[in-house]
Design brief:
Radius of gyration: 49 Å
Largest sheet: 7 strands, mixed
Number of strands: 23
Shape: flat
Strand content: 15-25%
Helix content: 25-40%
Length: 689
């Protein structure tokens, strides 16, 4: 209170003036003059005030209050760092501050089952102790408490210790229909069990005179060890790559667990082939960073190179992240969603549908472009391993194969083989007999469309006779489909023809680089041509999904006869057995009503019924212990006592009625008054309205 009144931390001008005078010899203890008005001072004081003002401007820079803030900040940072490291590394848990610390709770009370059998002093419970040993993997310290309501991790071992002030013959622990005898040591009784499920329990003891006593019900809430939580970051569910792309997947995985992650890895499956020839290869991949077991949070990353996994065009990769926690004896396992990656296969052809007919327009030799690509890639890998002469010869042979394929495409479009003639399906190159002119070595392989048509660019003035002898032009020529015209003699539409013509032009460039012994430069053109061919194929494709309905066969003798006497509707009768989860509770409600009206004692059959009703109510009370725990305790008393009061019956009956769910409405036939007279009256009332 003195500190609050005096407030020594509050700084005013008087305190500041005294501090300045005490720490400076030049101010002559006259700084207080600066706080006074000049009109109230004498002449000498005014001169001194002016002098102190000039002196203070120079002295104030060197006068600073003493403090230890720097030292205090360094010490506080150091102590905070020690505390954080102690908590983070788990060293502080080794001190077991909470071990054997008992929190005072209300002592469990016992009541006699048969009050008439009690003829002596009832033993009193002096002390109660509950010790919870958590599983070692949780890292939680052992806890002790006198509270009988238990909340612990699944797999924890609980030990009870009860100490009475008088001799007791036996003590038992009853939990969810199970009976366990407790071990006697002097006047104390101990018992232990492992927690696996939530439920309720109570104690019973028998004194040395044979009287039995029962305690209230206590709750057991088991906390399930949750599975690890996995979150994948920076990755799409489905990824596709072209053959020329950088086929690399990079992503991060954020994994958390309530008691620590034990292990985490990636399960990847590579599928090759299609149909019945498909093959699968499964691999377990580790993350790029080394993983430390026991961490509650992990930030991991992974980079998957599809080329290093020996994947080829058409192969697919399925992978997911799998993590386990530290739970024993069997760990919890969690897995993420499955992610997909595929390398596009440009030769994956299917049946095409054109003009309503299920025909495949692509001949088999259209697939050989992919084989050319495979052979070219193989030749590139052999550079330096084989002789230059063999390398050039192989490259030239591939160029010839590319030319043959290009000519076949041209024939399929309706073009005539340029510079060649077809004989029995074989392509023979035309021979130039003019040996006098110097031949361009690249003339056959260059893409010179402009020079091929030079003789048609300028009209010949001396060709009038031929024009006069030309046959009269057919007026229907523009409207007929002339198979002799290479531009119209094709199975493809105009947009497909342009794509195929573009593919033929690209094949020229691919062939050129192969002839020049440059397979690396030819490969991109080959891929581009193959992609165009695939687009042509897919543009004429229609998918028809098969439906799973096969109609029954129709007899030919009754077809179109109009006879439907054997045609009946489909009827199906089915009986369902409905199981009532609250049958014993409902029976107990009716029986309690009888006991309340007749004031009769409960029989052994009644106590057995109440015990079964308690088992049904316990399932519901586990979910809502605060609502039905009292009713469950009272029902337990009814199942153990013979003499029951009317007040207890009413309370139990009210609690059981609250536990019953609402009855779902069922369809039923409604009955009402009918008859001709009623219909006439209603009709008359409607007319008079």
């Amino acid at each position: 209170m003195a500190l609050l009144i005096k407030k020594p931390w509050k700084i005013n001008l008087q305190i500041a003036s005294n501090y300045v005078d005490a720490n400076s010899t030049k101010l002559e203890y006259s700084s207080w003059l600066l706080l006074e008005e000049s009109a109230e001072l004498t002449g000498l004081a005014k001169l001194q005030q002016q002098k102190m003002s000039n002196t203070l401007e120079a002295e104030i820079k060197s006068i600073k209050p003493e403090h230890q803030l720097k030292t205090a900040i360094i010490i506080s940072v150091f102590l905070v760092a020690i505390g954080y490291l102690g908590f983070y590394t788990g060293i502080s848990e080794n001190f077991n501050f909470n071990r054997n610390t008992t929190s005072k709770e209300k002592t469990a009370s016992f009541v006699p089952i048969d009050s008439l059998a009690v003829k002596h002093k009832v033993p009193v419970l002096k002390s109660q102790l509950v010790t919870i040993n958590y599983p070692s993997y949780t890292g939680l310290a052992t806890a002790s408490t006198s509270k009988m309501d238990i909340k612990a991790v699944e797999g924890s071992r609980v030990t009870w210790e009860l100490d009475f002030d008088a001799a007791v013959d036996s003590v038992s622990l009853e939990s969810m229909g199970k009976h366990r005898e407790m071990m006697k040591t002097n006047q104390s009784f101990t018992g232990s069990t492992a927690l696996n499920t939530s439920g309720f329990y109570n104690f019973k003891f028998t004194d040395t005179f044979g009287a039995t006593y029962s305690s209230d019900l206590f709750t057991i809430e088991v906390i399930k060890d949750k599975s690890p939580l996995i979150r994948i970051e920076n990755l799409k569910q489905f990824s596709s790559f072209d053959y020329t792309d950088n086929k690399v997947l990079s992503f991060g995985a954020f994994i958390t667990d309530d008691f620590g992650v034990g292990n985490a890895h990636i399960i990847a499956t590579v599928s090759k082939g299609t149909g019945e020839s498909v093959k699968f290869r499964e691999e377990q991949l580790e993350f790029d960073e080394p993983m430390s077991s026991g961490e509650k949070q992990l930030n991991l990353s992974k980079t998957i190179d599809l080329d290093k996994m020996n994947m080829e065009p058409g192969d697919e990769l399925y992978f997911y992240v799998e993590a386990q926690d530290l739970r024993r004896p069997k760990e919890n396992t969690a897995r993420s969603e499955t992610y997909f990656a595929v390398i596009k296969d440009t030769i994956n052809y299917g049946p095409g549908v054109e003009g309503g007919l299920g025909v495949d327009l692509m001949p088999d030799y259209f697939r050989s472009q992919r084989q050319l690509i495979i052979d070219t890639e193989k030749l590139i890998t052999q550079r330096g391993k084989i002789s230059e002469e063999e390398f050039n010869s192989t490259s030239n042979d591939l160029g010839f194969d590319q030319k043959s394929l290009r000519l076949k495409y041209g024939q399929f479009m309706g073009d005539e083989a340029e510079g060649s003639s077809t004989n029995g399906g074989e392509v023979t190159e035309a021979i130039d007999h003019d040996h006098d002119q110097e031949e361009d070595p690249l003339a056959k392989y260059s893409h010179a469309h402009d020079s091929d048509n030079e003789h048609n660019l300028v009209e010949d003035p001396h060709d009038h006779d031929q024009d006069e002898n030309k046959e009269e032009e057919d007026p229907l020529a523009d409207y007929l489909h002339d198979h002799g015209d290479p531009e119209s003699s094709t199975l493809f539409t105009d947009n497909l023809k342009s794509k195929l013509r573009q593919a033929l032009n690209i094949m020229w460039d691919a062939e050129l680089h192969l002839r020049l012994y440059e397979p690396e430069k030819s490969l991109p053109f080959q891929y581009e041509a193959l992609e165009l061919i695939q687009d042509i194929k897919n543009s004429a494709r229609i998918y028809v999904h098969r439906i799973g309905f096969d109609p029954p066969p129709i007899k030919e003798e009754v077809r179109l006869s109009g006879d439907i006497k054997d045609v009946t509707n489909f009827n199906k009768n089915e009986q369902f057995e409905s199981s009532d989860e609250y049958s014993f509770i409902k029976q107990s409600i009716f029986r309690l009503e009888e006991l309340k009206d007749l004031n009769s004692k409960s029989t052994g059959i009644d106590r057995e019924l109440f015990d079964k009703a308690g088992s049904e109510l316990a399932k519901k009370a586990i979910q809502e212990p605060g609502r039905f725990l009292k009713t469950l305790q009272q029902l337990k008393q009814l199942a153990e006592r013979q003499q029951i009061s009317k007040k207890l019956i009413i309370e139990v009956q009210k609690g059981l009625l609250k536990a019953l769910p609402e009855v779902a409405p069922e369809p039923q036939q409604k009955y009402g008054f009918g008859g001709k007279l009623n219909e006439l009256v209603l009709k008359e009332l409607e007319l008079n309205e």
